[in-house]
Specification:
The protein is an alpha/beta fold. Helix content is 54%, strand content 9%. The protein has a 5-stranded mixed sheet.
């Protein structure tokens, strides 16, 4: 974020737009969501860096590499990267468009083709409301075809249209919604800052606009979900285990909840799907720790986790470092069966 802010500050934007770029690059919700769903922030920053490109051939390579990265990162980064030409310095917009398309095709074309096939086959990102795609596609076509000839106002309009069309796909919680907004608001904010700078408003208007955009997420800045609290607790637990000790936990106990814990290679991670039969002999030899995780706090999880734990010979008497976490779901479809979520760990062997 700091590098992006400095580049945007130096590229000659009007004061109002520069303040918006600076404030929104350090936007608290974007920084916070970047610790987990980092593709939202990374995609927006890659596109902003492409828009702040150097001039000349070096800038073309710069844009191509960033576009290849964004194309491989996540589909949400594709429409963001499509906005870059409209915000590029005058005289570079056509070159930015060509470089971005070549970079995406040459560096990540196979990945993009695979994702598109999955979407068309209905195996990935099946939209709840297909008409949502119409304004999104229109915004992308408008930006790609005309963005290299336009000023920032067209990019701002295209960003607003695509944001409104795609926003419903991230409505699973207030934090997710605010994080999606944080990826798009810099584009609308910079364009609005350019328009403000051309009007009869004082120079501090840009700072006021940035603060207003930041304030829209004030209600979720301090929101702590169960997943976040569990991540902090389990990271301390896993970090204290011997390096060769595997970690098992129930990751799936129903059709909605999926629990991810910070267990990384070379440590073995055993994510148990308790919806089916569990064989305790499937655990690896040697040291194995078991974490009673938040998936066990749903209605289905209470019963299915108990079944797994009985098979492992575990009960409440074996619990270590128990903690009660706030029952605040990260997804609107997750429902905890208790007002608090109890977590603990123990050694299987």
């Amino acid at each position: 974020p700091a590098v992006t802010a400095l580049l945007l500050w130096r590229r000659g934007l009007p004061d109002a737009a520069r303040w918006v770029a600076l404030w929104l690059t350090f936007e608290p919700i974007a920084v916070r969501i970047g610790a987990t769903e980092s593709y939202l922030v990374a995609g927006s920053l890659a596109a902003l860096l492409a828009a702040a490109r150097p001039t000349g051939p070096a800038g073309d390579v710069w844009v191509a590499v960033l576009a290849g990265f964004a194309a491989r990162l996540h589909p949400t980064a594709w429409p963001l990267m499509a906005l870059a030409p409209a915000f590029s310095p005058p005289g570079t917009r056509l070159r930015t468009t060509v470089a971005a398309l070549l970079g995406a095709v040459l560096c990540s074309g196979v990945v993009v083709a695979g994702v598109l096939r999955s979407v068309l086959d209905g195996r990935l990102a099946s939209p709840a409301s297909p008409p949502q795609l119409v304004p999104a596609v229109a915004a992308l076509l408008l930006t790609v075809l005309l963005g290299w000839r336009a000023r920032a106002w067209l990019g701002t309009g295209a960003a607003a249209l695509a944001w409104a069309a795609l926003r419903g796909g991230y409505g699973q919680s207030p934090l997710w919604q605010a994080a999606f907004d944080a990826a798009w608001f810099p584009w609308m904010g910079i364009g609005a800052g350019v328009l403000v700078a051309r009007g009869p408003w004082p120079r501090w208007t840009g700072g006021a606009l940035a603060l207003a955009l930041l304030a829209r997420g004030a209600t979720v800045w301090r929101m702590t979900t169960t997943d976040e609290a569990e991540h902090d607790w389990s990271r301390a637990v896993v970090g204290a285990l011997p390096a060769d000790c595997a970690v098992a936990w129930v990751a799936r106990a129903d059709e909605v909840t999926t629990t991810f814990l910070p267990v990384y290679a070379p440590r073995a991670a055993i994510a148990v799907d308790a919806r089916g039969a569990f064989d305790p002999t499937s655990l690896p030899d040697g040291c194995v720790a078991y974490i009673h995780a938040s998936a066990c706090a749903t209605a289905a999880g209470l019963q299915r986790c108990a079944k797994v734990e009985r098979a492992l010979g575990l009960d409440a008497a074996t619990a270590r470092d128990p903690a009660s976490l706030p029952a605040v779901p990260s997804h609107q479809d997750v429902v905890y069966a208790t007002p608090t979520v109890d977590v603990w760990w123990t050694v299987v062997r």
